[in-house]
Amino acid sequence: MLKVENLNAGYGSVNILWDVSMELNDGEVVAVLGSNGAGKTTMVRAITGMIRPTSGSIVFNGEELCKKPSRYILDAGIVQVPEGRQLFTEMTVLENLQMGAFSKETKEHFQENLEKCYKWFPKLEERAKQAAGTLSGGEQQMVAVARALIGMPKLLILDEPSLGLAPNIVDDILNVAKTLAKESNISVLLVEQDITKALAAADRGYVIENGHVALSGTADELAANEHVKKAYLGI
Amino acid sequence: MDVLLQAIVNGILLGGFYALMGMGQNIIFGVMKIVNFCHGEMLMVGMYLTYMLYTYAGIDPYLALPLVAIIMFLLGAVIQHTLITPSLKTKSFTNLLFLTVGLGLLLSNGALVLFGSDYKSIRTSYSQTNIMLGPVSVALPKLISFLVLIVVTIALFTFLKYSTTGKQIRAVSQNPVGAEVCGINVRRIYLLTYGLGVALAGIAGCLLTQFYSIYPTAGASFGFRALIVVVVGGLGSIPGAFFAGILLGLLEQMSALFISPSYSDMIVFITFIVILVVRQLLIMRRK
């Protein structure tokens, strides 16, 4: 459903992504792995239109999305849970979730999607009237994921969901992502530094180093790869 | 006693204008993190606009109020679109400082060229009407202005709290990146915010024309006081700005009564400095 080819992107005159190509199928969880500064977030920003790629192509369900504005890409069904969550901390949990409904369609289905989100994350229903900034880190990450799900994604991009969270909460969130992919046929692009957890949740993965795709393969292949073991898993 | 009561009432009524100005400044600062240094001049433009509508079209200042608000909103939106949004991209505070200060100079000097430096005023049939509230006599226009202020404050608060656009404005002010992720059109919100802020200044200007002289630098002292209101009332808080404005008006009238009217400006600013210093000390102690 998503096919990225020879994507180049960066900030100003600094190019960060070099000819990145990757593919993602319906209902698949694909991990994008790499260390800090490898270009993972830049890739997310390029795919979601928050920065303008310098060249390349991003085809999503047969439509070319490269260089389209972020709102257009959102309407096409690519919704991200950004790095650092980016919640509206002084607004309530419910208001945060309301902000996730950006289009006419998502507004119409808001109530049923809200109930679904409450089913995924029962904590959020208890905390609905609380300011998002007063929640724990894990709960805030749940709000961020729920806010994206309110946007009825066809492709959900999770950017560093493990950042600053306790391991068991990361497992919870990755489990939700995995279940979503299998049951609701939402594809998930999982961008992670925590490679062990990411590979456990993903079907396939790409390893990015210095803005290039260094390796790709199924999750098992990557977990068994000597380079991955040495460079990332410390085995 | 009656004198004190009279001063309190006058202070509250005057404070209403500071509150209106402060709310406009506050919403602009909250969303874009820029200080609108031409906020006082926008009030002045609102005054002249009301003056022209009254003198040339014979429209009563209170009937002109919605019209002035709409024209000022459009003026603000145009300024935002053509000048401020492009300079926001440079992410340079000095750029925007020069831009808004320069815009203020342009507006006040433009008014000087167009209308001259003499004081203009609007005298309607009810300008001089006074109403007795117990022992206190209140000018009717001031009372009406205060009622308008209350309505505007409640409307603004409700708009920001409950409407979708109001929530989007708050969202952008709290987290612009998160707002973009949610598909909120940040540029449109900037446009609305600046228009709204300028419209509030215009409303204050329109209401002021009944008992305040109209001249090219009439807005300056209100512009400065708007900054004080924002700092004292808390950033982004509409009720905070409302009460800070009223307090400021009260302080001014009290110092005029007990010390001397000629010192009231000085006392206002000294109090402001004291508040800043005390707050800084408190913050440092908390750390």
What does this protein structure show overall?
The complex is a heterodimer of chains A (about 240) and B (about 290). Chain A has about 240 residues and is an alpha/beta fold. Chain A folds into 2 domains: about 1-75 and about 155-235, Rossmann fold (3-Layer(aba) Sandwich); about 85-150, no CATH class. Chain A contains 11 helices and 10 strands. Chain A is globular. The relative contact order of chain A is 0.19. The model of chain A has no long low-confidence stretch (mean pLDDT about 90). With about 290 residues, chain B is an all-alpha fold. Chain B is built from 11 helices and 2 strands, in the order ααααββααααααα. The model of chain B has no long low-confidence stretch (mean pLDDT about 90). The interface of A and B includes residues 48 and 80 of A.
Number of strands of chain A: 10
Q: What helical percentage do the residues of chain A reach?
A: 40-55%
Residue-averaged pLDDT of chain A: 92
The run of helices and strands of chain A is EEEHEEHEHHHHHEHEHEEHH
CATH topology of the largest domain in chain A: Rossmann fold
* CATH architecture grouping of the largest domain in chain A: 3-Layer(aba) Sandwich
CATH superfamily label of the largest domain in chain A: P-loop containing nucleotide triphosphate hydrolases
CATH class value of chain B: Mainly Alpha
What is the C-alpha radius of gyration of chain A, as a whole number of Å?
17 Å
Taking the sheet with the most strands of chain B, its summary is: 2 strands, antiparallel
Low-confidence stretches of chain B: none
